[in-house]
Amino acid sequence: MTRMITIGAAQLGPIQKDHTRQKVVSRLIDLLRKAHSAGCDLVVFPELALTTFFPRWFVENISETDHYYETEMPSPVTAPLFDEAKKLGIGFCLGYAELTPQGERFNTQILVEKDGTVVAKYRKVHIPGHEEHEPNRAFQHAERYYFTPSNEGFGVWKAFGARVGMMICNDRRWPESYRVMGLQGVELILCGYNTPIHYIPDPSQDILQGFHNALVMQSGAYQNGSWVVGVAKAGVEEGVDSLGQSMIVAPSGQIVAQALTTDDELLVAHCDMDWCQKYTKTLFDFDRYRRPEVYTRITAQRGVELD
Ligand code: CDT
């Protein structure tokens, strides 16, 4: 018997600064309904799916940006999404900016089961970009000013009849993110992203954005025998062009569905969770073949150490 999950990767086109939460939530609900019509069990939305990617601007007083953060989930404005999903019997994964009662700011993603229960919350571990205003840049990537890196790490939860993990955007470039989940038997990894095509510190990488996006998710899937669902907020948002190319990757490393546009677009794939074992019980039988005793540098040291 196979364990199938029909998954919808719900790519979003741009969200401009003046787009209201209500308008965005109605776009999410449209995609949710499309996914339901396509027989999906689970819909995955991007990172920071409720607002424009606000770390592209710097403000002296961070509290001026409080309106971009959610202080409760669901909230009155996001409740219609939760209600519709529960009514349709479809689960979802949603990225948003979180402001806690203690005043901490996280880049967060939640997983909601088909019955409306919030199964898990993941807070982004690898925060890219810069802490300070860099006035010479065409646009900022001040995520390190707006978000605290989470110390909670990468969990794996039982949901949708599978072992599910989450990561957010820059996490997908680090093999450690996948491996920590791989060591917990992950079968499905959900990842939202916002990736500007123009990489200001080294523009020679601009043309490679799509290649690198596929490279990291395909290798992470294959090397850990897991499905990976990567979902973009794409297109030209407030003048900044962001990568689309949302994709669903099989444990073989093959792309089984990929976005064709940089707009709101739903990709659907029927994902057999038992396919993972073809890899985790053979070539990547961790228990049989891994050599943790010679990998101690991975956790003992952070940067490169030269003799
Ligand atoms: N959102 C996010 O993490 N974006 C980064 C952009 C590159 S770092 C400026 C990413 O890894 O795609």
Q: Can you offer a commentary on this structure?
A:
With 307 residues, the protein is an alpha/beta fold. 22% of the residues lie in helices and 25% in strands. The chain is built from 8 helices and 14 strands. It has helices at 21-37, 79-88, 143-146, 175-182, 209-224, 276-280, 286-289, 297-300, and strands at 4-11, 42-44, 91-99, 105-112, 118-123, 156-159, 162-168, 188-193, 227-232, 235-237, 240-242, 247-249, 255-258, 265-272. It has a 6-stranded mixed sheet, with helices on one face. A hairpin with a 5-residue loop joins strand 4 (105-112) and strand 5. Helix 1 (21-37) runs parallel beside helix 2. The longest helix is centred in the N-terminal third of the chain and has 17 residues, at 21-37. The protein is globular and about 55 Å long. 4-methylsulfanyl-2-ureido-butyric acid binds next to loops. Residues 47, 128-129, 141, 169-170, 173, 193-195 line the site of 4-methylsulfanyl-2-ureido-butyric acid (CDT).
Name the descriptors.
alpha/beta, six-stranded mixed sheet, 25% strand, binds 4-methylsulfanyl-2-ureido-butyric acid
Query: Could you say which overall geometry the principal axes of the C-alpha atoms support?
Result: globular
Secondary-structure element series = EHEHEEEHEEHEHEEEEEEHHH
- What percent strand? 25-35%
Bound molecules: 4-methylsulfanyl-2-ureido-butyric acid
**What is the helical fraction, as a range of percent?**
10-25%
Helical element count? 8
The overall pLDDT, averaged over residues, is 98
**How many strands, which pairing sense, and closed or not: the largest β-sheet?**
6 strands, mixed
Total E-strand runs: 14
Radius of gyration, whole Å: 19 Å
